[in-house]
Sequence to fold (431 residues):
Amino acid sequence: MSRTTELQEKRQKYVSRGIGNGNLNFAATAQGSTITDIEGREWIDFAAAIGTLNVGHSHPRVTKVVHEQVDKFLHPSFNVIMYESYIELAEKLSEIAPIEDAAAALFNTGAEAVENAVKFARRYTGRQAVVSFTRGFHGRTNLTMGMTSKVKPYKIGFGPFTPEVYQAPYPYMYRKPADMSDEEYVDSVIAEFKELFVATVAPEAVACVVMEPVQGEGGFIVPPKKFVQEVAAFCKEHGILFVADEIQAGFARTGTMFAIEQFDVQPDLMTLSKSIAGGLPLAAVVGRSDVIHAPTPGEIGGTYSGSPVACVASLEIIDIIKDENLTDRAEEIGARIEEELKGYEKEYDFVGDIRRLGNMVAVELVKDRTTKEPAADIVNAIAKYANDNGLLLITAGIHNNVIRFLTPLVITEEELEKGFAILKDAFESVK
Ligand SMILES: Cc1ncc(COP(=O)(O)O)c(C=O)c1O
Fold:
């Protein structure tokens, strides 16, 4: 029996079935965008730990600072005694955030950042309600499950959820009614958004509106600029805080440091995680300093919040993004993936839509281009083929019919070509 089979059997027995696995092999080493498994096989990484590895696996500058920090101390806990890297990172994040006079607080995971953004917003406004969006994803804790949209597998059987969470509509250009122009459709979704505050919850009861500037799990749906701007303006008018959930879209992924910058909107708060620390558990809420300083000491925090090992990694990553010009690189790679997919669009009639912002690229598959019936079975077959044959590939979408591309932003031309060759075979296998 191979070591892989042995471990797979143990995984079945000892690890919760509730945790999903896209690829059933076991990593041994990883560098850049290539993973070598314990049998010595190579895997090209088009998933980057679900958007966590914008600077790639084991970037030498990141591993160096991590090693250095590990030799100094692991975790004195910021609540007990402070350390420099936490302060430096809070300062750096406040400087690079598209928010005037910002401050920050650090956490461990994306869901924790979202929970805390809501805490800051509630404390600052004295209001309780939270508005999120259809098809949004914000995490797996009780509050963030409630804010999340996809019922299966994220919510079913796990209620009740926290009260005072409301879901607003979010435009989906590919699936707009056929008889509406783009403009009519966007205006109608804006009107529906505003209607929520008449029919369902009073604006003066709402602490914050939490929006992904590009929906991640929802299928890489890029909203029209006008929609994002109107939502932000509505929030401003009613004293509601506008929170950009940049956990998947942030840190250079979309061609700017933060995706919200491309919508010319200044959020009140941003939630960050994933690529903020290149694989180490770290998250942040960055926002208007008056909001971040609203809670009194002890109201915010956590034993592991802002691990010093993760903080030094994050500081280095911010420099790497600049030094290696990864925001530009995101756009170049994104365009390259789009070009590849455009070729598939001509060949495979199940390709329904190709969309992207920078290097958040998705292809949505359908059974029929006119009815647009989602083709989850084809997506699953392609992802399985890829994951059996040397390419880490992940899916998304409320109907599970989207393939999403989250390559590291340091991926080489050679790695991209190897990945595309497997991807092409995967598409051929379902023809
Ligand atoms: C936009 C967004 N928000 C929140 C989360 C939750 O992050 P975590 O899984 O670290 O709790 C995710 C994770 O995919 C995400 O994409």
About this structure: The radius of gyration is 21 Å. The pocket of pyridoxal-5'-phosphate is lined by residues 50, 109-111, 114, 137-139, 212, 216-217, 245, 247-248, 273 (CB under 6 Å). The chain has a mean pLDDT of 98. The domain at 3-55+325-429 is CATH 3.90.1150.10 (Aspartate Aminotransferase, domain 1).
